[in-house]
Design a protein that fits this description.
The protein is α+β, with helices and mostly antiparallel strands and 343 residues long. It is 17% helix and 28% strand. Strands 1, 2, 3, 11, 12, 13, 14 and 15 form an eight-stranded mixed beta sheet that branches. Strands 4-5-6-10 form a four-stranded antiparallel beta sheet, with no helix packed on it. It has a three-stranded antiparallel beta sheet with strand order 7-8-9.
Length: 343
């Protein structure tokens, strides 16, 4: 490493200032959350694999399954309800022509997928797991699960009309947080012991089914940027000790000083292993998921993270996250923010 991350503990010179250098991890959810059942179906799809190519941290969560009720296509518009059996359904309208999925003069065929046998069921369709739209050549143009459709409505601001309380569908209970820095996400989950434990031992949260794989949900996180935020520290009062766990740098504001140049150099980049390690540890420390048997005891002082490289503090910004995550052991839930503001 080209820099010296240690603070100067000797008596400061008269021109020395006290500096701090924070790192802000900017990450995103690159693909809508998928159930374990859906993941098993989609992990061979080339387009999905490409979207998950850069994901290095994942969250395994759970909520009652969602399904489509009263699905019917009329005059090029699809009307339906989104339901989970836990409260009033949310009514929705999708216009694939308005969304640009089909040209104005193109015919559209609508098909539903089901977790159960529903052959020859006439519309309106109920308890549908997915909507699939085909063109006249029977080529698939788009498919939506309820969660994929909600992700596009909230995170991507697609023109999907929703009436009711769709925000309640965005709450998830976190079971496990892990990383897959050195291998592809789908390979990591394929033989993941904790993933298998969750599928085996977690009870079903919803109604009218006994398959945890329909509820256990996978969120992928991809690091986009690592911002460095250097600045002069306010304070401290004379004789006041440095904040515990916080690295303070002391040198003049003088580019000719080698300490200034070392401080201003970039210490890490977005796709380094230390950034993934930091993101995983920060989320585990925040939520304390039950299936993370090894907890983070002294965050941010962790092996292989950003604090070890000298950063004074770590901040997190997560894009495309309209979700509310909770755990029983964690503190206040992390609220999803407006997609324009992130959190």
């Amino acid at each position: 490493m080209a820099h010296d991350p240690r603070s100067a503990h000797a008596a400061p010179d008269g021109d020395d200032l006290e500096w701090m250098k924070a790192a802000r991890i900017i990450a995103q959810i690159p693909y809508p959350p998928v159930s374990a059942w859906e993941f098993g179906q989609l992990k061979t799809e080339r387009a999905v694999r490409a979207r998950l190519e850069g994901a290095t941290v994942y969250i395994i969560a759970q909520r009652p399954i969602l399904w489509f009720d009263q699905v019917r296509a009329e005059d090029g518009v699809i009307r339906f309800e989104i339901n989970d059996g836990q409260g009033p359904p949310v009514k929705a309208i999708v216009d694939p022509y308005d969304l640009g999925i089909f040209a104005p003069d193109e015919p559209m065929m609508v098909e539903c997928g089901f977790h159960h046998d529903a052959k020859d069921q006439p519309p309106p369709w109920n308890r549908a797991a997915s909507l699939k739209l085909y063109d006249e050549d029977k080529a698939l143009r788009v498919w939506w699960s309820p969660q994929k459709l909600l992700y596009e409505a909230f995170a991507l601001d697609r023109r999907i009309l929703l009436a009711g309380d769709p925000e309640r569908f965005m709450e998830f209970e976190i079971h496990y947080i892990g990383k897959a820095y050195d291998q592809r996400l789908w390979k990591r989950l394929k033989a993941h012991e904790r993933f298998l434990d969750i599928l085996t031992y977690e009870k079903v949260r919803g109604i009218d089914h006994t398959q945890p794989s329909l509820e256990i949900t996978i969120f992928a996180l991809e690091v986009l940027e690592l911002e460095e935020l250097p600045g002069v520290r306010d304070g401290p009062q004379d004789g006041q000790a440095d904040p515990p766990g916080m690295t303070i740098f002391r040198h003049p504001d003088d580019p000719s000083d080698p300490r200034w140049r070392a401080f201003r150099r970039r210490w890490a980049h977005a796709h380094e292993a230390a950034v993934t390690t930091e993101l995983e540890a920060a989320l585990i420390d925040l939520f304390k998921p039950a299936h993370n048997k090894i907890k983070v005891k002294t965050y941010p002082k962790i092996a292989g993270g950003l604090h070890a490289l000298g950063y004074s503090d770590t901040l997190l910004r997560l894009k495309n996250c309209p979700y509310i995550f909770r755990t029983e052991a964690g503190g206040a839930p992390l609220e999803g923010a407006d997609p324009e503001d992130d959190w």
